[in-house]
Amino acid sequence: MGLDRSPNGQTLLAITLAHRDNAINSYSYCEFDAMSTLDHQALHLLYSENNSWLKGWLRARLGNAADASDLAHDTFLRVMTARSQLPIREPRSYLSAIARSLLIDKVRRRAIEKAYLQALALRPEPVEVSPEVRLSIIEMLMAVDSLLDELGPKTRAIFLAVQLEGLTYGAAAERFGVSVTTVKNHLIKAMTRCLLAVEG
């Protein structure tokens, strides 16, 4: 059995899709649970005192009022689903930290979507992709990208070299100056991380 499959025979694609679905389900449960105990008055105060400031903070970084408004909205939604105690001692530091994380995700998503469209454009024949399928593919790629970020730089690089570039273990070992055994260990680490993500 090759390392492109998990010990139970799942392909990386299947693992990735399962991880994405688990993440969505976990988010929905967290939102419901948090909403049942939320201090609505404290949240309203947090919003009324900081929404305009947060939009300005985001607009200065995005250069776009519409995107800033959308991201500010997403930031307060994240506060609603968090388990932090309200009121928050340093609200603007807290909000800017959440917004910064969402901003990084937004930039990453745009980069992934751009790379995906470029890859489609390089195909010899035009490929018709429905909006639904395109969204599903982008979400899957985001999930893969998030998983790879958790692996560490060397494991990530070796994993991509073998899985995407098609390097043999020997070629990967030569490129990274390690043994074939080390290459295999990094790949096992990557696949184990994928399995742990699926199992929660």
UniProtKB/TrEMBL annotation:
Keywords: Sigma factor, Transcription, Transcription regulation
Signal peptide: none
Presence of the UniProt keyword Transcription in the record: yes
Recorded GO MF terms: DNA binding; sigma factor activity
RNA polymerase sigma-70 region domain ranges (all copies): 46-111
GO biological process, one term: DNA-templated transcription initiation
UniProt name for this protein: RNA polymerase sigma factor
Organism: Pseudomonas putida
